[in-house]
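Batch job 17 of 40 flagged for manual review because the log was empty.
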Amino acid sequence: MDRLDDFDLLYLLARSGCGLILISTRCHVLAALTSRIRSSLALTEIEFPPYKTDELYDIIRDRVEYAFRPGSLKNEFIKLASVAAQGDARTGLEIVRKAGKKAETRYLNEVTMRELEETITETNKLKMVYPIDKLDEHQKLIYDILEKKQKVSSGMLYSEYCSLIKNPVVDRAYRNYMRRMVGLGLIKSEGKGRWKSYEIVQ
């Protein structure tokens, strides 16, 4: 679901009698679906909670035993990677892998705090860069406005967007844009109708 650009495809598949299993790493991705698509899918949600830090530590340490030379990555650094991963095993494994590569290119016998901190910073930046890169010109402008204002009502946000671009999209397309950005995990919404507001996900 995180990589799907055209949600209408789900409607067509559901109406064609296909059984669908939708997978996403973002629990709010379904907020981007219209009521028409939701009713056609008749979804049943199954949530897999994030790993706890101690669970991640066990997973990462197990992989480190196979991938690293004994003593080249301290247990305390594995614990730091487990915390930085925020419940995501793939992120935790990627942190230690890249930290190990950095230490290797620097001809070090073991990973130091420097490699670990650099890798954690890079990983956090990449988490945001990927979904932002998927935005078009209009969505990026809307996101920039929100980034400056932090939180703003939907009406005021649309008005400012219209004042900053030559050919703004109509109100309906704007609402679709907002649903998409919520689905990507970039922003979150509160309230309904005229009382709806948006803010950046920190």
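Reviewer: the log was empty due to a logging misconfiguration, but the result itself is present. Residues 100 and 111 are 6 Å apart (CA to CA). Unflagging and moving on to job 18.
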